[in-house]
Amino acid sequence: MHLINSFELIMNLKKVLITFLGLIVILFGFTSITGYSIIIDLNSKANIHQIKCLNNSINPFEKFNFDSDDNWEVHLVFDLHDVNSLPKDLPRVNYLMTSDTSVLNSMKNNWNFKCSNGDMATVESKLLLKKNDLVVFETGIHITDTIQGLQSKDFGWIQSNAILYDAKRFNRTYMPIIII
User: Fold this and answer.
1) Full-model pTM
2) CA-CA distance, 127 to 130, in Å (whole number)?
3) Total domains present in the chain
4) 39, 64, 118, 170: which sits with the fewest CB atoms below 10 Å from its CB?
5) What percent of the chain has a predicted confidence (pLDDT) above 70?
């Protein structure tokens, strides 16, 4: 009797393990084919820098030292509706990321915007700048072939064609679940 229960337990564990592994294969396959990952945002919003338009211009990254020993990352999380409108130079995925200091410094040097004193109606995608795993800057981002810009309640809508050049240098991930 005891031997039969152990055998049943082992068979049940085997079924659970096979089901779990099958689910993982399906998730990776789905992500590889569609480019969509499940994004889980666990970030605290307490450390976010408030960046305002001064003298009719703004550079959201000018005060950050990307050459420091800190761990810097930029995450682009695209709304599923925005993925279909991405320029052909970008992969049709809902998540891109970089920690490459040359890309970060290019953003710092080239993402100079003129303040428009306006707002873009609906910007659902977002850019997160993290320093040592803490979000220090967050803004909405919109990237299409014709319009590229950032949207924030602090500075409104700002446009620049420099965004696409650097966004093309971000990395795609093939992970089905991403925790940022």
Assistant:
1) 0.83
2) 10
3) 2
4) 118
5) 95
